[in-house]
Amino acid sequence: MDKADLPFLSATELASLIKSRQVSPVEATQAYLDRIAQVDGKLNSFITVTGDRAMADARLADQEIASGRYRGPMHGIPVAVKDQFNTKGILTTGGSTILREFIPDEDATVVSKLDRAGAVLLGKLNMSEFAMGDAFHHPYGRPRNPWDLSRNPGTSSSGSGAATAAFLCATSLGEDTGGSIRGPASFCGLVGIRPSWGRVSRHGVLAASWSMDQVGPISRTVSDCAMTLGAIAGHDPKDGHTWDVPVPDYLASLEGGIRGLKVGVITERVQSDVVDPQVRDLVLQAISQLGELGAVTEEIDIPLMAQSAAISTAVTYGDVSGVHREGIEQRLHDYDYNVQLRLLTGAILPAQAHQKAVRLRHMLREQILEALKRVDVLVMPTSSIPASPIPAMAGVASKEEFMEMLGGRRSYTAPFNLGSVPALSINCGFTSDNLPVGLQIAGRPFDESTVFRVAYAYEQATDWHTRRPPV
Known about the structure:
By secondary structure, this protein is of the alpha/beta class. It has helices at 11-19, 25-43, 51-66, 109-116, 158-165, 182-188, 222-232, 267-271, 277-292, 308-323, 325-331, 337-348, 351-374, 399-407, 410-418, 448-461, and strands spanning 46-49, 78-82, 120-125, 171-175, 191-194, 215-219, 262-265, 296-299, 377-381, 423-430, 436-443.
């Protein structure tokens, strides 16, 4: 195999070749670093490339594997992580100029776990400022979608989506508060899972909303995503919100098919007027494919789902303004303009409104859990639209535009972070403009295995994951 082709392998394919010593971690890492140098100038997916460290990690992995000390499937795999995660001795900006000189003295737990698994860190990925959604100004370069450079790769794990789709890392980590793993996965044609809240540690992760932030992988295939989640999941004494429950072998649970599995179709979210017609058609075709694979589909109604974006916004903005209280008081204008609007909105949000949102969140969660007693998974679009054009101006033009935003694509990812259940996005086709579309699959708390199994069965029956963006 030509070494320049190594980045185009899936992470699991590369892992097999590394384990059998047909490919060395050094060769794979150098191939990725070469591709980053060639391509990332168009995408701005990285804030920091850690080339010297990556090569040192790769040489160590090579030596360990040669001496029989193989650590597992992530050993020697070149990865990249969102710049929201602390990395010891490496710049961690949170996508903001406010932290342009911040170098942590400790790794985030997920970074430590990747290191213990033998992964090779290629660098830190671009993101919306402090993971607060659609920032307008990106001080380290505007991230661009590899399928169409004029379009958004998703927020706020934008660099994770762009880099993974463009084959600049074998797999990546993002963080999802209101959809920031699933959105980039949908917009960039990838597989991304927001795990159950409490499945993965957030120690050392720059916070947005304490009650909804969750770390997870963005990968090119379901097996890559399962392999990556297996490396980072588990209880962490440093994060009191992680659950001390067993972590399954996600890779081993992929096989077996989905015959007889019950799939709940949230029809109102599929047939809603806000859904792009091409998105609707591709999602319906994907649901039909699940039926052909033996799943039993039935329509499910979740009454509060259409209001989920408004509920999520009220909860998140209140949390975020608390995290950044000192910043609001002392250096508000150092934040991106769009972020300023979110911070100020959260700061003046009445306590009654926040408490109402919290109560509505509980009601929505109960509705989701009740639905999951009837079916094994729930399905609907990840986003109501394909990747949107990069905005030409900051802010929101009108009240009507803001209300439309709350009823649009944000109401597609928000239900499942409010419900604290696992939700995955998988590519289910392309629009006439060659833009990816995501099918969202959600499951019961801590049942990521079933979500992965449904996604894997669909992936194996289709070839969407084999397409490459034109960069």
